[in-house]
């Protein structure tokens, strides 16, 4: 069970407000300590999925206080271990169902439930920003993954191709772009686009040069399988995008989901470069269409998943702007998915 420690400084004369703000949130522990005149240090231990509710409550009640500041820390372990009480959980679910049937604040309950199932927006933003930074390490991993994938594709070795998928750092920028759309965070969007475009361009250029230097057989299974686009690839892209976002919003380790995203992006990108470098332009075009399908569907699923989980800025005016940006983003991605589905149908018909 992932835990978070939220440390905050609030005015010491508003301790009752603090207790009231956190009274409806399920906490592992709450401790306060006076650190100076007029300043109170608050330590809240909570499950990762509940950290957004804690930070939201603190922000709502204390954001205008001069003393207020907060940090969120990941907790490796804590003692004593929390008890596992299925009956209590079932009772809570039954209570929630009864309240829902009674029609008491359905909209607010729904929003609280969605927020309680993910990490805080601040933690999410910081983590995704780190994952999408264009650094020498990121570029080095792209180069290594491209070389490994090219070798695996030419040898028709699924094991080597999977190894390249593990190396490929393509999860972060893809998730960051979806989050930037959901939050209307244009600086984050620029970071994500820069990392995405740089990684794609580097991978495609390197694989093109490899295709020029060594012979490539387009009939090899690992290569040929990525020169065909079907409607199942649209479904795969949607599944991968949703899984990638869920992995970061719930604090689940992203290694396995990173492999899923790499499955969708890196191998067909390398195939397109290899075939183009060897002069097989029809196959390269088909691999390029597959890449476009995955990029569009991954981003659509990512934005939808963030939206369903209630990810949005905390201030009202930023939330309104983000809501508009999300609607526009979803509309554009849906239009592109529709265009791709039509193009795929025409290709299949031919």
Task: Explain what the structure shows.
This protein has helices at residues 15-22, 51-62, 86-102, 106-115, 121-131, 136-155, 158-167, 171-183, 186-213, 221-224, 231-249, 255-277, 281-308, 316-349, and strands spanning 3-11, 29-36, 39-47, 69-75. The protein is an alpha+beta fold. Strands 2-3-1-4 form a four-stranded antiparallel β-sheet, with helices on one face. Strand 2 (29-36) and strand 3 form a beta hairpin. It starts with a strand and ends with a helix.
The total of helices stands at 14
State the distance separating the first and last CA atoms: 52 Å
Main sheet, how many strands, which sense, barrel?
Answer: 4 strands, antiparallel
The total beta strand count reads 4
Computed Rg: 24 Å
Give me the strand/helix succession: EHEEHEHHHHHHHHHHHH
Helix content: 55-70%
> How does the overall form come out from the CA principal axes?
elongated
How much strand?
5-15%
Strand order, biggest sheet? 2-3-1-4
Mean pLDDT: 83
Unreliable residue runs? 86-105
Summing up helix and strand content along with how strands pair, one would put the structural category as alpha+beta
Q: SSE layout and pairings?
A:
Blueprint: E1 3-11, H1 15-22, E2 29-36, E3 39-47, H2 51-62, E4 69-75, H3 86-102, H4 106-115, H5 121-131, H6 136-155, H7 158-167, H8 171-183, H9 186-213, H10 221-224, H11 231-249, H12 255-277, H13 281-308, H14 316-349
Antiparallel strand pairs: 1-3, 1-4, 2-3
């Amino acid at each position: 069970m992932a835990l978070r420690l939220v440390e905050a400084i609030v005015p010491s004369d508003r301790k009752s407000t603090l207790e009231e703000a956190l009274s409806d949130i399920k906490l592992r522990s709450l401790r306060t300590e006076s650190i100076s005149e007029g300043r109170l240090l608050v330590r809240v231990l909570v499950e990762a999925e509940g950290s957004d509710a804690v930070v939201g409550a603190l922000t709502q009640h204390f954001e205008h206080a001069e003393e207020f500041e907060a940090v969120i820390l990941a907790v490796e372990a804590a003692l004593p271990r929390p008890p596992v009480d299925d009956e209590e959980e079932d009772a809570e679910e039954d209570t929630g169902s009864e309240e829902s049937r009674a029609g008491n604040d359905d909209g607010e309950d729904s929003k609280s439930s969605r927020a309680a199932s993910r990490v805080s927006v601040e933690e999410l933003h910081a983590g995704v920003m780190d994952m999408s930074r264009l650094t020498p390490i990121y570029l080095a991993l792209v180069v290594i993954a491209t070389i490994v994938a090219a070798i695996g594709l030419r040898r028709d070795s699924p094991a080597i191709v999977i190894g390249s998928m593990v190396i490929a750092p393509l999860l972060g920028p893809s998730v960051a772009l979806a989050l930037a759309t959901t939050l209307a965070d244009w600086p984050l969007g620029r970071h994500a686009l820069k990392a995405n475009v740089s990684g794609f361009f580097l991978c495609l250029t390197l694989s093109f040069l490899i295709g020029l230097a060594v012979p490539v057989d387009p009939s090899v299974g690992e290569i040929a399988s990525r020169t065909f686009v079907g409607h199942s690839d649209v479904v795969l892209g949607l599944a991968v995008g949703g899984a990638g976002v869920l992995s970061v919003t719930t604090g689940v380790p992203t290694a396995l989901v990173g492999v899923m995203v790499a499955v969708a992006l890196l191998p067909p990108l390398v195939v397109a470069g290899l075939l183009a470098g060897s002069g097989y332009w029809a196959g390269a075009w088909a691999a390029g269409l597959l890449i476009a399908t995955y990029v569009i569907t991954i981003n659509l699923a990512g934005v939808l998943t963030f939206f369903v989980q209630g990810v949005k800025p905390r201030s009202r005016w930023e939330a309104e702007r983000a809501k508009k940006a999300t609607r526009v983003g979803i509309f554009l991605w849906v239009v592109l998915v529709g265009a791709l589905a039509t193009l795929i149908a025409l290709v299949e018909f031919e």
